[in-house]
Amino acid sequence: MDPIDVAVDLAGVDDLLTDDERDIRAAVRTFAQARIAPHVADWFERGTVEDPRGLTRELGRLGVLGMHLQGYGCAGMTATQYGLTCLELEAVDSGIRSLVSVQGSLAMYALWRWGSSELKDEWLPRMAAGEAIGCFGLTEPDHGSDPAAMHTHARRYGDDWILNGRKTWITNGSIADIAVIWANTDEGIRGFAVPTTTPGFSAHDIRHKLSLRASITSELVIEDVRVPSASAFASVRGLAGPLSCLNEARFGIIWGSLGAARTCLSAALRYSIERSQFGRPIAGFQLTQQKLADMEVEYTKGLLLALHLGRRKDAGVLKPAQVSLGKLNNVREALEICRTARTVLGANGISLEYPVIRHMNNLESVLTYEGTVEMHTLVIGKAMTGIDAFR
């Protein structure tokens, strides 16, 4: 094992993992480092992912798409194994973890949890194999943290539904084959499985991003899109549907953000040992060691929290407020680790020759999506006080 890896796991958290968990982690790390790491800085700089469909098929063959779901060609792995997978993917880039997270924890999970048997049979095996790509349409241009006020609506038309609206900041949007769209109806908020070839559906990539550039982000335009009644999720009404999916995705972020943190901590540690100033490695200066120690402490606490929540999820006792606790803490501390690592690297910290600025920029988005800092703070506050402060 690389001495840097040993130093980064100073507390020996690795000893708490099972052999199967280490095997899954090793397989994903090997794939990510060989297939993605050599190219991702270039993808980030160019603002595009080379052959995203080919990459998705490779991820399908690896078995990580919907890996925590049962049946339909899904791997049926544990939540903790899925978390470790997210960590290893985001150790390379948040955008790659987002691709897998949106596919498995949002689009596939929505179909798996709320879709009909026909929808599951039609889509889930292809999505697990990476042969079909999904996206998840909840956020709108004017409604992010308050999805209940969404403008997208659906009305009955005979045996069909007619959908109209717009969704934005949608990962995988322009390459998706199936879109899970949430819309207001006379019966409350409902979910719909919409093939992206349906007339009236279009997706347009969002340009000029300075974060998650190695990720496809789109706006969805839905104009008189007509789908059969079988496309509607029959068993759920209201925000319970989309929020159940978001909790799945947020769980992956709890782990994934630590992958970005680990990469930046490792880069800072290695750089501090190799970089000399005033006749000695900068790792030998007290201020640098304080930065390294602080990063190590926060990374270790975040990893222990992620593992604890993973064990709770595997036991079926994880609560939404606990997911908010993990997402808020781990992303916030991971971002601070990346920022501190940038200072250790000095001017080199802003170069794509090193991974730090890329991870730092990516985490600015991760801090916001799947629930902002403010929203998760209020979820935790309500759980502690019993008082709803959202309105």
Task: Give the SSE map.
Layout: H1 3-8, H2 19-46, H3 52-62, H4 79-92, H5 94-114, H6 117-128, E1 134-137, E2 153-157, E3 160-171, E4 178-185, E5 188-195, E6 201-205, E7 217-228, H7 240-274, E8 276-277, E9 280-281, H8 286-314, H9 320-345, H10 356-366, H11 373-385
Parallel strand pairs: 1-4
Antiparallel strand pairs: 2-3, 3-7, 4-5, 6-7, 8-9
Helix pairs in contact: 2-4, 4-5, 4-7, 5-6, 5-7, 7-8, 7-9, 7-10, 8-9, 9-10, 9-11
Explain what the structure shows.
- This protein is of the alpha+beta class and 391 residues long.
- It has three domains: 3-128, Butyryl-Coa Dehydrogenase, subunit A, domain 1; 134-231, Butyryl-CoA Dehydrogenase, subunit A, domain 2; 240-385, Butyryl-CoA Dehydrogenase, subunit A, domain 3 (Up-down Bundle).
- Helices cover 53% and strands 15% of the residues.
- The protein has helices spanning 3-8, 19-46, 52-62, 79-92, 94-114, 117-128, 240-274, 286-314, 320-345, 356-366, 373-385; strands spanning 134-137, 153-157, 160-171, 178-185, 188-195, 201-205, 217-228, 276-277, 280-281.
- The strands form three sheets. It has a four-stranded antiparallel sheet with strand order 2-3-7-6, with helices on one face. Strands 1-4-5 form a three-stranded mixed sheet, covered by helices on one side. Strands 8-9 form a two-stranded antiparallel ribbon.
- Helix 5 packs antiparallel against helix 6 and helix 8 (286-314) packs antiparallel against helix 9.
- The longest helix has 35 residues, at 240-274.
- The protein is globular and about 80 Å long.
- The N and C termini lie far apart (51 Å).
- The mean pLDDT is 97.
